[in-house]
TrEMBL record:
Pfam (any one): ABC_tran
Protein name, UniProt field: Arabinose import ATP-binding protein AraG
Alphabetical list of PROSITE patterns matching this protein: ABC_TRANSPORTER_1, ABC_TRANSPORTER_2
Gene3D superfamilies: P-loop containing nucleotide triphosphate hydrolases
Keyword Repeat: yes
Domain ABC transporter: 9-244, 257-497
The protein's Enzyme Commission number: 3.6.3.17
Length: 508
C-alpha cells in the first residue's frame, strides 16, 4: 500500500538536453496518490519532455526519477508500465490496421501474446460504454474510427492497465463537452481509488474542473505549483506566456452596414447525416459550428468542400453557384474554398515529407499559381512565426502547433474566399492559439468567410459572432450576443430547448 504522503512518482534535479537545446532544466516535480496534478505551459515549455521522462520514453541527462520513493532507471516505457506508470500521449498510439480489441491488448503486460490478465476486455467494454462509446465495436478496424472514437479507445486502453500513475496528455482534445464530462468522472473515480493523475490540457475550463494542483512550466523550468483556485486565469497565463486572459481573443467587430454575403447555404444536405441546412456568412463574420461529436457538423464541412458525393441544395460564394464536383474544383480561384481537417497528422500533412513539400500540396492543380514558388507561403509563415530547424526537414520534426501552422499556411497561400476549419486549435498551446485567433479575425475583416467547427466552447463564445448548434444532422439552435453562453451551447448540444428549466445541466 502506498504511503499517503509519499509521491507515487517524482523527479529531482532533472535536466534533459537534446544537443544544445535544454528541454528541462533542474526540475523537481511530484505526483501524489489521490490527486489530479495538472501541467500548463505553451509548446516548448517542457511538458511533453516531462511526461516522456516519467513514462520511460526518455532518459534524463542528469537528475533522478523516483517511483514510490525509490530511484529507478527506466530502459523504456515497458519498465515504467511495470511499476504502474501508464501514459496516454497526445499523438495517438493506436495501430490503424488492427482492430479495437487488438489495440486494447497490444503491448499489455501479463501472460501470453500481450494478453491482459483477468477480465480486461469486459472491463474495457464497460468503460467504453460509460463514455458514450457503446457503438464502438471491438471488431472494428481503428482506421474506420473517427478521431474522437480513437481518443475514447485510448482512454480505455490506459485505464484497463490498472495504473498507479495515469498520465493524460491532451486526452480529451478531440472530444465534445458531454463525453469529456464522462471521461472526467472516470478520472475522478481513479483519483478516489488512490491513483495519481498527471493531466495536460490547454483548455482552462478542463483544468479548473478537474485539477487539485497545478504546475506551470516555461522554457523548460517549473515556474510555480499551487492549489487549484489559488490563482486567477490572468496570473496563470502571465506565468506561461506573459499574456493576459483578455488578450487571448481578438475583440469582435460590429458588422458593417450593408455587409455582403460571402458564403450562403440554401437547404444544403447529405442525407441522412446532414439535413437541409441554411445560413449565411457575411463580410467580417466568423461563424461557429458546435454540438456533440457525430451530429453532422463535421460532415457538413466535408460536403461544402466537395469531399462527398450526392450532396443536395445550393452553395453560393459571393452570389455565384459553387460547383460540388470535388476538392480540385473547390480550391480553384473562381470558387476559393479551403478546408483545414481536424486530424492534421493524418489528413492535413504527409508526415514523412519535408515542410516545403507539404506547403506545396494545396497549390498543386492551380494553374494560376506556381506551387514551388515558396514566396507565396512566406507571408503566412512569417505572420504565424513558424519555428523550425529548416524547411527541408520532415514536417514530423515540428511540434503539433507548428504543424498546424504549416497546414494553415499552405491554404492561405491560395487566398481563399471561404475558410472551413475543423477544430484547428486542438492540442495547441495558448500562444499559438492566440496567433491563430488573431489571424482568423484579420481574414474575416478582409472579407474571407470563416466557418469554424470547434469542440472548445470558449472559442465558440469568444471568437465567433454567431454559433449554430447541431443535433441529429441539423441546426437546432443558433446563438448570438448574450445567448452565446456555455450553458446554452451545452443545453442545445443535448437538444434541451430551455436550459433554465433543466437544473441538471452544469454551469460552465
Amino acid at each position: 500500500m502506498t504511503e499517503p504522503n509519499l509521491p507515487i512518482a517524482s523527479i529531482k534535479g532533472v535536466t534533459k538536453s537534446f544537443g544544445a537545446t535544454i528541454a528541462l532544466q533542474d526540475v523537481d516535480f511530484d505526483c501524489y496518490p489521490g490527486e489530479v496534478h495538472a501541467v500548463l505551459g505553451e509548446n516548448g515549455a517542457g511538458k511533453s519532455t516531462l511526461m516522456k521522462t516519467i513514462s520511460g520514453v526518455l532518459a534524463p541527462t542528469s537528475g533522478t526519477v523516483f517511483a514510490q520513493g525509490k530511484p529507478v532507471t527506466f530502459k523504456g516505457p515497458a519498465d515504467a508500465m511495470a511499476v504502474g506508470f501508464v501514459c496516454m500521449y497526445q499523438e495517438l498510439s493506436l495501430v490503424p490496421d488492427l482492430t479495437v480489441r487488438e489495440n486494447l491488448l497490444l503491448g499489455a503486460p501479463g501472460s501470453g501474446l500481450g494478453r491482459l490478465k483477468g477480465g480486461a476486455l469486459p472491463k474495457a467494454r464497460e468503460l467504453l460504454d460509460q463514455i458514450d462509446g457503446e457503438h464502438i465495436r471491438f471488431g472494428s478496424k481503428v482506421s474506420d474510427l473517427t478521431l474522437a472514437e480513437c481518443q475514447q479507445v485510448e482512454v480505455v486502453k490506459a485505464l484497463i492497465r490498472n495504473p498507479k500513475l495515469l498520465i493524460l496528455d491532451e486526452s480529451t482534445s478531440a472530444l465534445n463537452s458531454s463525453v469529456v464530462d464522462k471521461v472526467f468522472d472516470l478520472v475522478r473515480a481513479q483519483r478516489d481509488l488512490g491513483v495519481a493523475i498527471l493531466f495536460i490540457s490547454h483548455r482552462f475550463h478542463e483544468i479548473e474542473a478537474l485539477a487539485d494542483r497545478i504546475s506551470v512550466f516555461r522554457n523548460g523550468q517549473r515556474v510555480e505549483t499551487f492549489r487549484n483556485g489559488d490563482q486567477d486565469y490572468s496570473t496563470i497565463i502571465n506565468m506561461m506566456v506573459g499574456q493576459r486572459i483578455d488578450e487571448l481573443f481578438p475583440p469582435k467587430v460590429i458588422p458593417k452596414a450593408g455587409a455582403e454575403p460571402v458564403l450562403e447555404l440554401r437547404d444544403f444536405a447529405w442525407p441522412p447525416k446532414v439535413k437541409p441546412t441554411s445560413f449565411t456568412i457575411k463580410e467580417g463574420q466568423i461563424i461557429g459550428l458546435g454540438g456533440l461529436d457525430g451530429q453532422g457538423q463535421s460532415t457538413l464541412l466535408q460536403g461544402i468542400f466537395g469531399l462527398l458525393k450526392g450532396t443536395q441544395g445550393t452553395i453560393l460564394i459571393n452570389g455565384s453557384d459553387a460547383p460540388k464536383s470535388g476538392p480540385l474544383a473547390a480550391k480553384q480561384s473562381d470558387v476559393g474554398l479551403a478546408y483545414i481537417p481536424e486530424d492534421r497528422k493524418a489528413d492535413g500533412l504527409i508526415q514523412a515529407q519535408s515542410i516545403n513539400e507539404n506547403l506545396e500540396l494545396a497549390a498543386l492543380g492551380r494553374s494560376d499559381l506556381n506551387a514551388t514558388d515558396h514566396n507565396i507561403y512566406k507571408p503566412s509563415l512569417d505572420r504565424l512565426e513558424l519555428k523550425h530547424g529548416g524547411l527541408d526537414l520532415p514536417v514530423s520534426s515540428l511540434s503539433g502547433g507548428n504543424q498546424q501552422k504549416v497546414v494553415l499556411a499552405k491554404w492561405l497561400a491560395l487566398a481563399p474566399k471561404v475558410l472551413l476549419l475543423a477544430d484547428p486549435t486542438r492540442g495547441i498551446d495558448v500562444k499559438t492559439k492566440t496567433q491563430i485567433y488573431a489571424l482568423l479575425r484579420e481574414l474575416a475583416e478582409q472579407g474571407t468567410a470563416i466557418l469554424l467547427l470547434s469542440t472548445d466552447y470558449e472559442e465558440l463564445i469568444h471568437l465567433c459572432d454567431e454559433t449554430h448548434i447541431f443535433y441529429d444532422g441539423g441546426i437546432v439552435r443558433s446563438l448570438r450576443g448574450e445567448d452565446l453562453s456555455a450553458q446554452n451551447i451545452i443545453g442545445a448540444s443535448l437538444n434541451i430547448p430551455d436550459v433554465a428549466d433543466h437544473k441538471g445541466i452544469a454551469d460552465a
